[in-house]
Specification:
heterodimer; A: alpha+beta; Multidrug efflux transporter AcrB transmembrane fold; Alpha-Beta Plaits; two-stranded parallel ribbon; 10 helices; disordered C terminus; B: alpha+beta; Gyrase A, domain 2; 3 domains; 4-stranded antiparallel β-sheet; 15 helices; about 55% helix; elongated; SecD_SecF_C_bact (chain A); cell membrane (chain A); protein transport (chain A)
Chain lengths: ~325, ~550
């Protein structure tokens, strides 16, 4: 007896309510964007400069006492958060202290860090500083720029690749799905105010890769079926293709999610934000490859007559079966 | 039908075996690491029985490359320094001054008397008393310029002179500045490397980044602060004539003189001549030692030309004080008691033993040509790194088991084939990572876990396709063949797109992110290899043995 998440033969109609699906996606994107505009992202020091200090002590952490110790130093905006994690031992009490970038300092000042460490050692004698990271405002500005370029480049490169391998309608559909995934991911980080640092950019690009993986598999089948069922209309072909690949789509999403969830639960708090972004991306990416990418493809239409030579630039590559 | 040439079979299995062999040392990480360290030490001539024993922990005939652990896993310090390339302009101009002065004095009849004006540090301003002679004066100054070797600037010279009223302004040319910046950064890189090597930590990373930045990563060091003590000091040692005492740092002094404080807090201020008698560049050796009162000191020795200059100066200035200046602070200002001919001496000050040792290291490695400004500094404690490794290990194992069980339940025997391929996949991935000496970071571990989840994708695509082909009632052999054939284009397209993003991440990212992109990218390569070749080989081998009439996928 086999475990089957999806029945052998399915014939769901994915496009009977396509306006609703596009509407939902559109609405979600608007919410994500509004949230981003209104409260912005909770940027980590990678992107806005400053210092984070991770402390650990055997004693219970008294955030108030820490704050009282640091306040006299007049360092501006200081956030202190205690971190709880199932992987911590009994006497592991961990806190994160974030200090804003000090004015007029292009570079980072070790004097600030030393002062904070001394003050905290008075407040809690057994305190250990397990990691101290400082990023100057000069570098953080550049990091934002690089990150934005990286995401844009990835999307652009993919657009070109799919255009060459398929047709421009496919490329647009795939990219629409990618943009949808990226916006929703940034949106949830803004909405939940999860710390957004350099690793999240890596997660974003991985989401781009994963979502694309899914989309390409569906599109590959669409391309095949378009040749197989020359008489059926596009909507029917799309439905057949998605149904045929549905079992694979679900299987892969489940194995990936299994792996990611174990990392989320057991991988420690340092990469939890990163893993969260990827879990969210896998879910959104799976959804978008069916409901966004394919719907856009349906909406744009595809050239059906394969007998005549095409004048689309990419077509000479389109028939190559690797 | 289902046929694979024997040479292909041998090749595929060999790749797997080699991959696993390359990965093997990582399973005995500490042991191999100790053995490698010991072997390196023996090579350097430290050959003790203990070393031999440590080296023997891992046999020579086995591969011994390990995956490097990133700072976030091993603990250590990371610094991003910007070389203040502008600092060099000042000393360059300072060195130009006597030349310009002498050249203009020779033309006294046309340009009249000259006087150096206050100016920005990267230029020299000279006022001439006869502005009519300006053309000639400029000609003379320009005559001092030397050619600069650059790729683009043919005929570019190192200095530029222009007239502003009755003043000549001399500056370094843009071409020279560019060339000088490059030299400065290279020198700084070299000196930082020497200093870190002197202290002797393992596997430091010292890289140039961009035009004027240097990335320094040292595993195992206690804190970024400690690292900065070693590399952050310019260690510009000079011996300057003392003009007299000063009352405050803002005292007005003559051109070519400056006020410097004493290194002791609340100590005295001195007016010294900017142009040093001898500099640290002419030192050949510096060692920590003790003075006659048993206090820590640093003894040094000059090279021949330094020794001659120092000897001449001390001979001519007996009874006068001179200052030993380190990075614009006076360490001590002794009075010259007698002629010092040998070219060696001792620096005393209020040192601790540690400070004198450090200073000796710095003087031996040479001075940095320019100051460093730190743009980024990170310290990761070894405990945090170990915690991350432990958590990552547990998470990877659980992810692995979950996926294995799930695949076996979904595809039965074929699932088990895919599982064997998955295990081989991670093995080969580690083998590749060790082979290229890649650095494993915490996001890199996440990349491996993600690979575990996504690697089965190619197999899922194939198995689903075989299921479909079986429905159209072809024989099992044909179904398997068609399944592989038809799934291939989807597998390639899907993986090429993911690979593109991995490449972009690698190109744009730094540090941990780059570590992630490496495991992700290599994971794609290995998973495509294992899915297309290894599982296929397993299925075909199984099929040949059993010749089943029907198969269930």
């Amino acid at each position: 007896m086999r475990l089957k998440l999806v029945p052998q033969n399915t014939s769901f109609d994915f496009f009977s309510r396509w306006k609703i699906w596009l509407g939902i996606s559109g609405l979600m994107m608007v919410i994500a964007f509004t949230s981003f505009m209104l409260q912005g992202l909770n940027f980590g020091i990678d992107f806005r400069g400053g210092t984070t200090i991770r402390t650990q002590s055997a004693q219970e952490i008294d955030v108030g006492a820490y704050r009282d110790a640091i306040t006299p130093l007049e360092l501006g905006d200081v956030t202190i958060t205690e971190i709880f994690d199932p992987t911590f031992g009994e006497d592991e009490n961990v806190a994160m202290i974030r200090i804003q970038a000090q004015d007029d300092a292009e570079a980072v000042s070790s004097a600030t860090v030393t002062a904070v460490e001394e003050a905290l050692t008075v407040a809690s004698p057994d305190i250990q500083f397990v990691s101290v990271e400082s990023v100057g405002p000069k570098v953080s500005g550049e990091l934002i720029q690089t990150a934005v370029i990286a995401v844009a480049l990835a999307i652009g490169a993919v657009l070109v690749y799919i255009w060459l391998r398929f047709e421009w309608q496919f490329a647009l559909g795939a990219v629409a799905a990618l943009v949808h995934d990226v916006i929703l991911t940034i949106g949830i980080f803004s909405e939940l105010q999860i710390r957004f640092d350099l690793a999240i950019i890596a997660a974003l690009l991985t989401i781009v890769g994963y979502s694309l993986n899914d989309t390409v598999v569906v599109f590959d089948r669409v391309r095949e079926n378009l040749r197989k069922y020359k008489k059926k209309d596009l909507k029917e072909v799309l439905n057949i293709s998605i149904n045929e690949t549905l079992s694979r789509t679900v299987m892969t999403s489940v194995t990936t999610l299994l792996a990611l969830i174990s990392l989320y639960v057991l991988g420690g708090d340092v990469i939890r934000g990163f893993v969260f972004a990827m879990i969210w991306g896998v879910i959104v990416g799976t959804y978008s490859s069916v409901f966004v990418a394919s719907t856009i493809l349906l909406w744009l239409g595809v050239k059906r007559d394969w007998s005549k030579p095409s004048n689309t630039a990419g077509n000479q590559f389109a028939n190559i079966d690797a | 039908m289902l046929q694979i040439d024997s040479w292909k079979r041998v090749l595929i299995w060999s790749v797997c075996v080699i991959g696993l062999l390359m990965a093997l040392p990582n399973a005995f990480y500490t042991r191999v690491e100790q053995s490698n360290d010991a072997k390196a030490a023996i090579e350097l001539g430290i050959d003790t029985p203990e070393m031999q024993a440590e080296a023997a922990q891992w046999p020579n005939w086995l591969p011994s490359s390990l995956v490097n652990l990133g700072l976030d896993l091993r603990g250590g310090a990371h610094l991003l320094a910007e070389v203040q390339v502008g600092d060099v302009y000042e000393s360059r101009m300072e060195a130009m001054w006597p030349e310009i002065r002498d050249a203009l004095r020779d033309e006294r009849t046309t340009v009249g008397t000259i006087r150096r004006q206050e100016s920005a540090p990267d230029e020299i301003r000279v006022r001439v008393s006869q502005p009519e002679g300006m053309t000639r004066a400029l000609e003379v100054v320009r005559g001092l310029a030397r050619q600069v070797q650059t790729l683009t600037g043919v005929g570019a010279t190192d200095i530029e002179a222009r007239a502003e009223g009755d003043t000549i302004v001399v500056q370094l040319s843009d071409a020279e500045k560019l060339a000088s910046d490059d030299r400065t950064v290279r020198q700084s890189l070299e000196i930082i490397r020497r200093r870190i090597d002197e202290v002797g930590t393992r596997e430091p990373t010292i890289q140039r980044q961009g035009a004027d930045r240097i990335l320094i990563q040292v595993p195992g060091i206690g804190s970024a602060g400690e690292l900065k003590k070693i590399i952050g000091t310019t260690a510009q040692l000079t011996f300057n004539p003392v003009v007299g005492p000063a009352n405050s740092l803002d005292d007005t002094v003559g051109v070519g003189e400056k006020v410097v404080p004493s290194i002791e807090e609340g100590g005295r201020l001195y007016v010294i001549e900017s142009n040093p008698v001898v500099t640290g560049e002419e030192l050949v050796d510096a060692q920590p030692s003790f003075d006659q009162n048993g206090r820590p000191a640093v003894s040094f020795r000059f090279n021949t030309s330094g020794a001659r200059k120092f000897g001449d100066y001390t001979l001519e200035n007996i009874g006068a004080p001179f200052a030993i200046v380190l990075d614009d602070e006076v360490i001590s200002a002794p009075v010259i008691q007698s002629h010092i001919p040998g070219g060696s001496g001792i620096i005393t000050g209020n040192f601790t033993v540690e400070e004198s040792t450090n200073l000796a290291v710095l003087l031996r490695a040479g001075a940095l040509p320019a100051g460093l400004e730190f743009l980024e500094e990170r310290t990761i404690g070894p405990e945090l790194g170990q915690d991350s490794i432990d958590a990552g290990k547990v998470a990877t194992i659980v992810a692995f088991v979950a996926v294995l069980v799930f695949m076996a339940l979904s595809y039965g025997l074929f699932g088990i084939f895919a599982n064997i391929a998955l295990i081989l996949n991670v093995g080969i991935l580690f083998g590749l990572l060790s082979l290229i000496g890649a650095t494993l970071t915490l996001p890199g571990i996440a990349g491996i876990v993600l690979t575990v989840g996504m690697a089965v994708d190619a197999n899922v695509l194939i198995f689903e396709r075989i299921r479909e082909e079986l429905k159209s009632a072809k024989g099992p052999a044909r179904a398997i063949e068609l399944g592989y054939e038809k799934a291939l284009s989807a597998i390639l397209d899907a993986n090429v797109t993911t690979f593109i993003t991995a490449v972009i991440l690698f190109a744009m990212g730094s540090g941990p992110v780059r570590g992630f992109s490496i495991t992700l990218g290599l994971g794609i390569l290995t998973s495509v290899f294992t899915a297309i070749f290894v599982t296929r080989l397993m299925i075909v081998t199984w099929f040949e043995r059993r010749r089943p009439k029907t198969i269930e996928v």
